[in-house]
Amino acid sequence: xxxxxxxxxxxxxxxxxxxxxxxxxxxxxxxxxxxxxxxxxxxxxxxxxxxxxxxxxxxxxxxxxxxxxxxxxxxxxxxxxxxxxxxxxxxxxxxxxxxxxxxxxxxxxxxxxxxxxxxxxxxxxxxxxxxxxxxxxxxxxxxxxxxxxxxxxxxxxxxxxxxxxxxxxxxxxxxxxxxxxxxxxxxxxxxxxxxxxxxxxxxxxxxxxxxxxxxxxxxxxxxxxxxxxxxxxxxxxxxxxxxxx
Length: 245
Hints:
The protein is α+β, with helices and mostly antiparallel strands.
């Protein structure tokens, strides 16, 4: 009777606590209707540049920041070139009415209301034509042996709904189906838990990614060129006079 009274009083013995329901804060909101495309032609480079800005995501490892901590807009010509040479791109679309970040005028312009009202908009499948770009990721590869995943991002209002994981899973599916298994993801410490949840971990060969960081502020050598890399100045070996074929 004591146990029964304790249960009805809102208390559970420790051996039963693992069966309790998750709290409201632990329940992840379900994602809206999505369309995930791996067709590069579905990506509008201007819309993608806007997504970079909304996500405050930079292609530079050392981006320039304004007074509000926002990164500089990505160069549209370089972005188009990067898209052209990416091995896999994954773009996520949903209808504008599911994106709180959008202005009301953009929501009303979806073209899915009219005869039948909002009901038509709810039943018509999402496509790149009627949807809004809300997520993106890409991979570069040598087409045979190795690949690396970059620029995985989701619009802030739709994060923590599993959309980022869907992007990575779609990219991995394409790579593995093409017999590419040596797949890396260059990420920050803050991004490690996300990629860990997507199946990434420390390299079993204990290899470490090293980046070229020779700073022009601490080195001064002849036959070197100074190049800008975001906020850093790097020394780049010159090809003049020493190139023999």
